[in-house]
Amino acid sequence: MLQAMQATAECPKPVPQKAPLLTVDNVTLRYKTSNLLITATEKVSFSVGESDRFVLLGPSGCGKSTLLKAIGGYMTPSSGTIHINGRQVKRPGPDRMMVFQEFDQLMPWKTVLENVMFPLLMARKLPRQQAEALAREYIEKVKLTRAIDNYPHTLSGGMKQRVAIARGMAMQPDVLLMDEPFAALDALTRRQMQDELLQLWEDTKFTVIFVTHSIAEAIKISNRILLLSPHPGRVKAEVVDVDKIRHDAAASAELEQEIHNLLFSNEPGHRE
C-alpha cells in the first residue's frame, strides 16, 4: 500500500539504488506576476540516479514545469538547493538539455540536420565534421534519416518532437529534461512516441526527468514516479520499481487507480 512521505526537512528523501546523479533538497520556488507572489513548490526534495526514468506527476498548478526549469538552471530557488554531480545548479548548462511541449522549438530556417547540430556548434563541443557525424547518429536513432534535409514546416508534430529529442541527446547531457513533450500530439502519435522513447532509452540508458499530468503515461515510461500536490507543489508520495508491473495490465490498472485516488485525496503515501 501507499505510505506517507511528506516533503519536509525532517523526513527521509527517496534514495535510488545507484549514487544520486541529481539531488533536489528542500526547494521552494516562487515567482511574481503583475500583482501576486506565487509559490509554485514548497520544500520539495528528491534524488535521481543515473539511468533513471524519473517522472514528475501531478495536476495542473503543482509546479512540475517550474521545478523542471529550476533543474535546468532557468530559475533560482527561493530556498533550498539543486545539485548535479555534486555541483550546485546556478545557471543553464550543456549537462542538462530540455525538450519542451511546443512544436516551434526548432529553428524554421534550418534543416533537421542543422537543428540537431546547432547546440553542438554553439557549445563548441566538437569540430564541425564530428558534430555532423554525431547529429546524424542521433537522427538515425529517432528514425528521421529520410527527413534529414527537411525543414520544420514539412514535418508532422511527432517528427518535430523527434528532432527536439535528437538535438537534446546529441549533446550527451547528464540529464534530459522533458516538459510534457507529447501532450500536444494526437493519441496514436503520443503512444508511438512513448514507445520510441522507451526504445531509445533501452539503446542508450540515458537519464531523463519527464513531466506529465497523465497517470497512464507516467506508468508507461517511468521506473520511478514522484507525485506532487497542487498549490503549492509538495511531495505527496513516490512510486518506485514501476518496471516490475509495467507489462502487467491488471497491476498497472490497479496502480493507476491508486495514484488517481491519492492525487485527489488528502491521504499521501508510498508504494514499494
Automatic annotation (TrEMBL):
Classification from the root reads: Bacteria, Pseudomonadati, Pseudomonadota, Alphaproteobacteria, Hyphomicrobiales
Return the InterPro entries for the record. Answer: AAA+_ATPase, ABC_transporter-like_ATP-bd, ABC_transporter-like_CS, ABC_transporter_ATP-bind, P-loop_NTPase
UniProt superkingdom: Bacteria
Name of a matching Pfam family: ABC_tran
| SMART domains per record | AAA
Residues in domain ABC transporter?
22-255
Q: Which named protein is this? A: ABC transporter
Kindly state which keywords UniProt assigns to this record, in alphabetical order.
ATP-binding, Nucleotide-binding, Transport
| A GO molecular-function annotation | ATP binding
Q: Which family does it belong to?
A: Belongs to the ABC transporter superfamily.
